[in-house]
């Protein structure tokens, strides 16, 4: 039987989602917990990868297990076993061919920025010391969403078949004492969101222009885009699935 697990994590203690030989990752910690409690080697297939330090408010993975799972009991035991930075929210039986990564139809990320020094955002948001033109950054974001080839925002030397992505939502909003960038797309390239945010912040501070944003995208050159902003401000907030996968 195949199950989906819904969980979240605070990314600072971990070197991203995917298992690595010489670093602690979320996948490794979760697989150890599942394998210990189910007394069988459990392999989790995540809905995607997050880089070191990136947070996830909503993340999914799937696993196979021959026996029926007592969901509430397993969720309780997992949360008692797992460290504070990881929480399991639900486990769901799904069709055998359901795939956490390949069936995901859209993903949404947020990036948090603060323009005033705030000790409570030290590990959860990016502090920008200069005034930002939010209206201009939103115009630049609309320009980015009008394109589909985002090679200029992809991490260099990444092995991908295509740089095409369809953005369905992109917006900067002031939320209480922080500035939040929200972006939804069918897929994302490695480092894409952090590179987009860096480019938009250049516009907001006056270091770049709307015309330059178009030139950057059309150049397909990562070195033309803005710097990659720190991972600590990035959150995976939502993953959407087709209706036949009931979560």
Question: Can you summarize this structure?
Answer:
With 247 residues, the chain is of the alpha+beta class. The protein is 24% helix and 26% strand.
Provide an overview of this structure:
It is a single chain. With 247 residues, this protein is α+β, with helices and mostly antiparallel strands. The protein folds into two domains: 2-102, Alpha-Beta Plaits, CATH 3.30.70.580; 106-238, Pseudouridine synthase I, catalytic domain, C-terminal subdomain (Alpha-Beta Plaits, 2-Layer Sandwich). 24% of the residues lie in helices and 26% in strands. It is built from five helices and nine strands; from the N terminus they run E-H-E-E-H-E-E-E-H-E-E-H-H-E. It has helices spanning 26-38, 71-81, 134-145, 192-204, 210-219; strands at residues 2-9, 45-46, 55-64, 86-94, 106-114, 126-127, 167-175, 178-185, 234-240. Strands 1, 2, 3, 4, 5, 6, 7, 8 and 9 form a nine-stranded mixed beta sheet that branches. Helix 3 crosses helix 4. The mean pLDDT is 96.
Topology:
Blueprint: E1 2-9, H1 26-38, E2 45-46, E3 55-64, H2 71-81, E4 86-94, E5 106-114, E6 126-127, H3 134-145, E7 167-175, E8 178-185, H4 192-204, H5 210-219, E9 234-240
Helix pairs in contact: 3-4, 3-5
Keywords:
Alpha-Beta Plaits, nine-stranded mixed sheet, alpha+beta, 247 residues, globular
